[in-house]
Please model this.
Amino acid sequence: METSWNTQLLLATKLTVPRSYAQAVVPRVRLYQRLATAIHYPLTLLAAPAGFGKTTLLGEWLRDVPHVAAWLSLERSDNDLMRFWHYCVAALGTLHPEFAACIQPTQPLEEMLTALINTLVSYPTEDIFFVLDDYHVIDDPAIHESLAFFLAHLPAHCHLIISTRVDPALPLARLRVRGQILELRSTELRFTLEETEHYLVQGLQLSLESENMLSLQQGTEGWAAGLRLIAHALQGEIGIEARARLVTSSTHVNRDILHYLTEEVWMTLPAEIQEFLLETAILTRLHPALCDAVTGQTHGQRMLDWLEHANLFISLLDEQNCWYRYHPLFADLLRQRLLLCSPERLPELHLRASCWYEQAQMMNEAVEHALAADAFERAADLIEYCVWPLWIQGKTPLVFDWLARLHGHITLAARPMIAYLSCLVFLHAAQFAEYQQALCIARECWQETQNVEMLSCLCELQAYCALCQGDGPKVLAYTQEALAFQQHKSLASACSHVLQGAGYLYSGDLQQARVELLLGQRIGIQTHRVLAIAGAALYQGDLCALQGQFHEAMSFYSQCITNTGNCVIWFRVLAHVRAGQIYCEWNDLSHAREQSARVTMLSEHFWHGHRSTVATLLEARIAWAADKQDEALDLLDQLEAEVQRSEKSQLDLASIAALRIKYWLAQGKSAQAQDWLARMQPADLDGLGIRERELWCQARARVLLAQHQPELAVQLLVALLPALRTQGRVFDELQIQTVLVQAYAALEDSRHIRPALERLLTMAEAGGYRRLFLEEGQGIKSLLSDLYHRQQKRYSGDLQPSTLKYIHSLLLMFGCNVEPRDWQSWQKRAQRAQASLEQLSERELEVLKLIAEGNSNQQIACTLVVAESTIKTHLNNIYSKLNVNSRLQALTRAHAVGLLSP
Model:
């Protein structure tokens, strides 16, 4: 059956149980019996230092168990989240093709794991063992986290077995408490005296006196690798006495025993074998043809056969007798000896390996060996050849590592593509000086060759850089330049239109932003540009969020996360951040933390742990909401230091300022807030972008309130409102409005405070805002409580029942003791009020208000400049519509239904 990805790109030998050697295998019945109980546990852990026979034990046991088993031998190169799981799926695919067929290569990890677990659930009910061998080579936190998720949801008939030198970063304590883990450690894995004797006497036909056997067992403490090394040395000694001397002299070396005995073994090998071992020491895996290419000989197969038959620290990795590997400890010795004896040979050996891997289309290994050979020009050639498929697969850490190792060793002016790729590395690391330098080099080269397609790509990159810095006008300038190049060549770039849409978004032109984003999305779908499709979804989500349409925004963020797989990781990261921000605003902290955790996992794997400013701001808000105020401020301190160190954008610093000032003032640290703002606020706010200016003004207004200067705060904030309302930026207006209503309250400006508060509530209710109010503390709480209780006995026509219910929920979150309302009764009163409002004419309402002020019919007639008879007619109409018979009854009914304010 055809799988969902090309399994030829995965090394099949890693999925095979390593072969043991019958003449040297010790039947370890006591351990087999222990392993037989693994069927009762989700996890079996074999944890012991190197050389304790973990792999051999598992391999021998699995050959006799009546259950199906999948095997994966791990290597350091598997410290890549998607590579790790692709190999896991491939390993399980050896049991049944459905495991591989259910996975798509571009699936997000969460979906891949879910599909895999669901497929395991549907697998026949017989028990399955899945072995991860040498798990200690995995140090990627994202892999640990994803494996913990996999383990937590493992079906009952599936059992994970991990072989490792160190305890894995999994919830072992929790599993122990629940009785869900079987552990075999070094104390159990050590060879007993009986097993040591069986290994030496029956396996290798070596005779030793009983006291020497005991000395050997005690000296090595049952360490299988040590026994094996000693046994190989003993095979070169003739007679019991000679062997006894060797045992006596070598078993007290302690930590140096491996080095000492390996030297003894090494010195006994034929020169031809030594030469072969040294020349192939650079290889992590051995293939006859690869060995021939590296050594320049044709005896690769013969040498490997000799080593296998001699049981000389070599393992066969497949059933076809093609791929082998040295024992890791033995390989370390070989590499040390090569470095000591012939360091000048290393470059040539690595270069030969690189050439062979290139011909075999194993490009990752080809690049690695080229870099190890210091063949940087060759490495650059190979990287240019294979980079884009890797980039699309989300292998950005690998590409970044290669480029970092190339840096300073090649002339970028001769390689504009490497310069362009380096721009991505520098931009991500916020090394803007280096970014600009590499950018100029690439531009000059492509201008000289008139490569307008790549010049357009450079403009898009510059636009993205400006976007990261929140500079909307620059984004628009660069995208227009990119589109000009594309027009010249009749190219239609979806990315340029998406970036232009984002530029309009940051410039405040939301209508034009939507037009460009939809255009970019349409072209992206037509041309299969995943990057553009993801970007369009992300920024359409941002647009909806700015307009206060949170639910619509979440739909777009979900599209961005779901449809991009691992191809556009950065957009996925941002979509998770944005979703987390909305969950946080809804005060749904559990889901906000979940989104933040996904950001961490993706950032650790794909971006070397780098987290964007918005991701850290989200963490700070979550911490503050959880009443971890010190942690929140520490995060802001760290972020501020990073922003200043890396010369990030003014938007980043302004975002930090808005949150920091709010939190400090909430703690009563007004002096600290004032001092910080005086030092950090730019002198010329008018020279900033609209978003930065608004954030700084918001921070400044808060400080002015703390300084008892509310009139200045009002002036500062009111000046921002016309543009916000014209542009329809509801989210940003709400941030300003929350501070403004508190400034009106400080001024005791009753004429403005109620309309401002009611507008704030009406807009916030539509988006379901919670943290917007909760983070403001006592100031906004008092205003909400006062407004709510003023409606205690009557319905206000200015507020809908849903808004009052919304205020009620906010007060409960503030911890206020408010009694629940009969909202159905409120709804009926609202309907009556609305009906009355619709029935009374504007003139009749005016007459009603004058009556409430105590005016007589004659006074009302004079005020309105009409005949008194006309006033009587209006009064009769009012009585009829309100179903009353007197002035007093009319006023009572009008107050009850909210036609008149209290």
